[in-house]
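Usage

Read records sequentially. Each one opens with the input sequence:
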Amino acid sequence: MSDSPAPSGHGSETPSTPRRHALSLAAPGPDPSTPGTGLATRALADPHRVYDPVVGDGPKDVVILGSTGSIGTQAIDLVLRNPDRFRVTGLSANGGRVALLAEQAHLLRASTVAVAREDVVPALREALSARYGAEPLPEILAGPDAATRLAASDCHTVLNGITGSIGLAPTLAALKAGRTLALANKESLIVGGPLVKDLAEPGQIIPVDSEHAALFQALASGNRADIRKLVVTASGGPFRGRTKAQLADVTVEDALAHPTWAMGPVITINSATLVNKGLEVIEAHLLYDIPFDRIEVVVHPQSYVHSMVEFTDGSTIAQATPPDMRGPIAVGLGWPERVPDAAPAFDWSKASTWEFFPLDNDAFPSVNLARHVGQLAGTAPAVFNAANEECVEAFRTGALPFDGIIDTVTRVVDEHGTPDRGTSLTVADVLEAETWARTRARQLAAQTAEARA
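and closes with the structure output:
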């Protein structure tokens, strides 16, 4: 496998990189590109269209970015249970768990392994040698752009399970190279929505977040013209039912005690503030091109219904499974086919209770702040996301109280102001906005810590 990016699927064709195209599986209503239909033209995810449909019975070649993380390890579990459907050609990771990465590479017989940290290459090579013995080792890519290079390599599908805005460059590389993108890296859309929209072809992106995979599946049951509302469900996190005043003194330990999901600390705290739900509202807007005023958040503590679509005839289609990310991952890798037994199903012989509550926007203002940021567009979402990451870290270290996270993020967003809509967004714009937001958030957190001392 070459170190250089493979030829783009949007340009000239080569035998190893066929030109990608979208196949319409079922009539999705009026063609969204037809003038006069009144339908938006830039929905990034469309279950009625499949990009580069697989012909024949051979397995799909898959690249997994973030293979040692939660999404990556669960994806590998799915692949290993379905060798007739999927074959992993490349793995990437940050480099903090080289023994696991080497084990994954050997188990999957991946031809290329990528790490972001060049300093761990000797340890990775040693770990690979211990696994492979006298067999040839896989190719090793290293450096900050290693995942980006791997994302453009020759494969059918790239699963982007990287955490954080560093996932944007690999997302853009995969799209430019003409790969199907199974997207679990929500920051790619949050910070670089216009950039992603400029590159993505119809059907090229399949969302892997549980909420957006649920919307994707529910949307398959109807026509785009008949959509009234998207309903994104939230568990409510560990503080569901508490008032704004009751959140002032919660601890880091309290915030990390999520009642449903086992996740990393940043995502878990985002669930406690409901920033994660705000990010998902922006993501839903970008993926499905539905206006913000038609995207609702409802609290569902059991986390059985992952999201819903309400149609104009009053019908609501819900996608429901027990909480398990292997289901959404299977949709991302296997669509338009279902992967049998990808995740556990409900036992309908047992009684269960499913509850739904309206969101308390006073106690959890992050969702409305995210709507505001999404409507500002431009670099505003990147500022929101970066400032939040810094404020979560400040909360974890004691510099900010829990309610100081959103208060500080709001101030950073307000200081950033309204982006210039007349200027096309670039990667440099995003990076510059993120750097400013992180610096300003750290300054404000330090001021708060000093005042509380």
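Summary fields computed downstream for this record:
- The first helix runs from residue 70 to 80.
- The chain has 15 helices and 14 strands.
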